[in-house]
Every structure is written in structure tokens, then in C-alpha cells.
Design a protein that fits this description.
The chain is of the alpha+beta class. The protein has 7 helices and 19 strands. Strand 15 and strand 16 form a beta hairpin. Helix 1 packs across helix 2. The N and C termini lie far apart (91 Å).
């Protein structure tokens, strides 16, 4: 026992705890910065399209480190970029996680950001991005409804739209009156239009007992009003046109008009592989408001490529079509023709097998 008075005892030595050194954390969305072409970086940031940026370069409006930019020049770490004499903090545009939305476009909207006639545009219904801008993959005219892909990845959009890929677009078409078999055969073989030869890769009758008939057609190019013009070449009136599939992606049955569905990480990886791009690591998205996911089914069809269309299993062969007002007000229902009854579920489909068309 220690009999030394407390007042005379040696004070205990208190060792200070070492201050932990903060670890440097690198956000997952900021990988090593490799040199990139200036058009690609600035278009990703939403400053303009690549063609606009090329025009700025030709007009000497862009400078790097005080020198005018030349076409094909790349940005690298430490470069000082100016546009019209103002500094552009381009580093924040170097990487952005890819997002892809499926938007169910209604009749009456246009696929443009600014319409001179002040008509409603699709971009007013999309979630806002803190960096970059949405790019529509192809277009639908004001009188066509259905599936429209939207992404913030310009390279992915270009791969999906480029004519060399010949991605299939499937449409549900309502026409007025009967169509002769000879007319259908001409549409399959090819019809000479004002901008060249065109044809349907596939035509399938769907439903209709009265004056209106529903068909499903497939084309592998995106010329303006191509589906309508093909039918009109046979003196057939199209009263309604709706896109239900673009390449391997189909319109989920419960995405109502003006609603969106965002592809999840697995679905996005399949689409990136299909487009010939490397899959990205899962990182936080940059939308300022959450995207409502109203679809329960996966948006991938059993796509087999332009030379292997499964005629008995088109993307929406069991749809019961409604007017735009009905589709917006009530969930979609499906007709099971095989059992002569109506159900609330869509028949099961196999997932997209990931193979690219040749």
C-alpha cells in the first residue's frame, strides 16, 4: 500500500493521443484525368453541341493558355481555358456518370429544347442535371408517341443513333381500312421514296375487327417520318403511331405518358456493352430531383438483331392499346388472347441476350 500523501505523489504522465492524419479520399466519379478533345469535354458539360464548339474553334473564340484552340486539340490537367475571354472551369466536366432515361412521350410534345412556336417540349418533364445536359437519342415527331431514350452521355447517344449500327425501331401503328397483301409485300421488299429506297424489316398484324387495324412494324433507320411515309406510299392513312422498342430496349408497360424510368446499374451495363462501350463503375448520380420508377418489368426485350427478328414474339404483342388520355389516367392492361381473358399482367419475356446486331 502506498502511504505517500496524495499531495506529494508524482503526477501521472498523460500522453497525448496522436492526432489522426486525415486520409485523402478520391471521389469515385473523378478518375485519373486523361487528355480529351475539347469538343467532347465541353459538350459533356452542356456548353453546346460538338458542332457548335467546332464553330467556336474556327471563329477563334476558344483559347488554351492564351493560344487559340485548333480542331482536334485536347485538354490536359493544368490547361487554362477561356471562352470569349471568360474562364471555363472545365475540370468538373471531365467525368460524369452515365444516366439513361426511358421517357414515354405523348402526342403534342416536340423533341427540342426551345421551340419557336412555344409548343411543349419533352425536356420540361425530365429531372434536372447539376452538370451537363440531356441528349435525346433520335427524335419522334409531334404526332408520334411512345419510347424515347434520353442520356447525358454524348458518345453513347451517338453510338445508338449512328446509321452504321442499323438499330431496329419497332412501332405500333393504327391504320384506317384494309391493306392488300400485295401492298404489305411491297413494303417488305422496298419502296422508292423521295429520299431513297426504304422498307419495313418486319410487318405483323396485331388486332382490329372494325375500320381500324393495328400492325407492328420494324425499321432499322431513323429517317424523318419514315414509318408514316412508307404507309402513305400505299395510300394507307396512319391514324396513330407509337414507338414501343428502340434496339434492345422496350417501353415498360407501366410507364405512363410523360413519365420516366431510369435504367439501373445492371441494365445500363448491358446497354453500354451492346453499344460497344466499357461499363462504368456504380457512382452517385447528379440529378437534382429523384427519377420516379413506375415500371416493375425490366425494359429489355428479347432482341435478336436485324437479321433475327422473332416474328411471334415482338416487344408488345399482347398490348391492349388505349387513347393517350386513357393511358395517362389509368394503368395499362393486357389482353391474353390465348385464354380469351383480360389480365393485369404482361406475359413473361426473356431478357435481352446482350448480342449486337451485325
Amino acid at each position: 500500500m502506498n502511504n505517500t500523501p496524495i499531495s506529494k505523489r508524482a503526477a501521472p504522465i498523460l500522453r497525448k493521443k496522436a492526432t489522426p492524419v486525415p486520409k485523402k479520399t478520391v471521389p469515385p466519379s473523378a478518375p485519373t484525368l486523361a487528355p480529351e478533345r475539347i469538343q467532347k469535354v465541353l459538350s459533356r458539360g452542356g456548353l453546346g453541341s460538338r458542332r457548335e464548339i467546332e464553330r467556336w474553334i474556327e471563329e477563334k473564340r476558344l483559347t488554351i493558355n492564351g493560344q487559340p484552340v485548333t480542331l482536334g486539340q485536347s485538354l490536359k490537367v493544368g490547361d487554362y481555358l477561356e471562352l470569349n475571354g471568360r474562364v471555363v472551369h472545365w475540370e468538373k466536366f471531365t467525368y460524369q456518370p452515365t444516366q439513361v432515361l426511358i421517357y414515354n412521350k405523348p402526342v403534342g410534345e416536340v423533341v427540342t429544347r426551345h421551340d419557336p412556336e412555344n409548343r411543349p417540349t419533352i425536356f420540361t418533364h425530365l429531372p434536372k442535371l447539376s452538370i451537363g445536359r440531356w441528349i435525346a437519342v433520335g427524335r419522334l415527331d409531334i404526332n408520334t408517341s411512345g419510347l424515347l431514350l434520353v442520356t447525358n452521355n454524348g458518345e453513347l447517344a451517338n453510338r445508338l443513333m449512328h446509321p452504321s449500327t442499323q438499330l431496329e425501331r419497332e412501332y405500333a401503328v393504327r391504320i384506317l381500312g384494309e391493306v392488300a397483301d400485295s401492298s404489305l409485300e411491297r413494303l417488305r421488299q422496298g419502296v422508292e421514296l423521295e429520299d431513297g429506297l426504304a422498307k419495313f424489316e418486319d410487318i405483323q398484324f396485331f388486332a382490329g375487327e372494325g375500320a381500324n387495324k393495328w400492325y407492328h412494324v420494324v425499321v432499322n433507320e431513323g429517317r424523318n417520318r419514315l414509318v408514316r411515309r412508307l404507309w402513305e406510299s400505299q395510300q394507307v392513312v396512319v391514324s396513330r403511331l407509337m414507338r414501343v422498342r428502340y434496339g434492345p430496349i422496350m417501353l415498360p408497360e407501366r410507364v405512363r405518358a410523360k413519365a420516366v424510368y431510369e435504367l439501373n446499374a445492371k441494365e445500363l451495363a448491358v446497354l453500354m456493352e451492346f453499344a460497344g462501350l466499357a461499363a462504368e463503375k456504380s457512382v452517385p448520380t447528379t440529378t437534382q430531383s429523384p427519377v420516379t420508377k413506375t415500371a416493375t418489368k425490366k425494359p429489355f426485350s428479347n432482341y435478336k438483331g436485324s437479321k433475327g427478328v422473332d416474328k411471334n414474339n415482338l416487344a408488345h404483342h399482347d398490348w391492349t392499346y388505349k387513347s393517350d388520355a386513357q393511358a395517362q389516367a389509368t394503368p395499362s392492361k393486357f389482353s391474353d388472347k390465348r385464354h380469351g381473358k383480360t389480365t393485369g399482367e404482361q406475359p413473361k419475356r426473356t431478357r435481352f441476350n446482350g448480342k449486337k446486331s451485325r
